[in-house]
Write a structure and sequence with these properties.
With about 280 residues, this protein is α/β, with parallel strands linked by helices. The protein contains twelve helices and nine strands.
Length: about 280
């Protein structure tokens, strides 16, 4: 069954009375070259278990299952379950969970399904919930080694931007704190059914094995980052003073010790300096 053939897709969806949900951001992949590339770049291989988020009709699921030892997929739309029973009938190494990934016990799922396997995440993420899902995966400290996802092109640029540039944001800092992001390849809007209004890109985040800060330091660091970027047009001294109640002179002193001017804005600091600044301010 060729799941990227438009005629096949329409036949399957028609027989099951399925209609696309704009609310769930459903855009199914119909370019046959995309999902094999995601699987091959996303650590789908012998010795690995892959957690997929959002299955569609199983196009990527199938490619992951052909390469990895086990695939566990979390799909929120119960209307897709009978379709997946048909499209993935030939595989015995796939388990589908009809749940909301933002509410699912992913740690328990991984422990049940991927015992003794290395774990990766692969997904074609809905645009509207890209950042919350990625940050949830990172902040949960799950035993995963990589996250390979297809996201909106602009989101990919922000996620993979260099910290300390105008293109970066709080999500950029978050991703770079937990791992190393890399853009793999672009995907045109015509690769989907229905076709979205924007192009996409596939990125991979290779996760760090150990946290760079203690739990208490980490909480302060992200408070500082969120405060700074919530008022990114202001200087750091003004932003942190108004959002966190830190005295401007304390900020000036910390910036000076890092060789930065009093007028510095948060987008001008690279990852090392952001961490150093948070430690200096936390210890004052």
């Amino acid at each position: 069954m060729e799941l990227t053939n438009i005629g096949t897709v329409k036949d399957i969806l028609g027989r099951h009375g399925f209609s696309f949900s704009k609310g769930l951001g459903q855009n199914f992949i119909i370019d046959p070259t995309i999902c094999p590339r995601i699987a091959e770049n996303g650590n789908a291989a012998p010795g690995w278990g892959v957690l997929e988020i959002g299955t569609g009709i199983g196009v990527l699921t199938k490619e992951l299952a052909l390469r990895a030892d086990k695939v566990a997929a979390v799909e929120i739309d119960s209307r897709l379950l009978p379709i997946l029973e048909e499209t993935l009938a030939d595989f015995d190494n796939i388990k589908i969970y009809n749940e909301d990934v933002m509410k699912c016990d992913l740690m328990g799922l991984i422990q049940r399904e991927f015992d003794c396997l290395r774990v990766a995440v692969c997904a074609n993420l809905p645009y509207y919930i890209t950042s919350p899902i990625i940050m949830m995966l990172l902040e949960s400290r799950l035993p995963i080694e990589s996250i390979t996802v297809m996201v909106q092109k602009e989101a990919a640029q922000r996620l993979c931007a260099q910290v300390g540039t105008r293109e970066s944001g709080a999500i950029t800092v978050g991703v770079n704190y937990y791992g190393t992001p890399k853009k793999l390849f672009g995907v045109s809007r015509g690769s989907f059914m229905p076709s979205p209004n924007v192009d996409s890109a596939v990125i991979r985040i290779d996760l760090n094995k150990e946290p760079r800060l203690s739990a208490e330091e980490e909480r302060f660091f992200f408070r500082m980052v969120k405060s700074g970027f919530s008022q990114r047009r202001k200087t750091l001294s003004n932003a942190l003073s108004s959002m966190m109640g830190i005295g401007k002179q304390e900020v000036y002193s910390a910036l000076s010790s890092l060789g930065l001017p009093e007028s510095a804005r948060i987008e001008q600091l690279d990852m090392d300096r952001l961490i150093q600044l948070s430690q200096l301010l936390m210890n004052k």
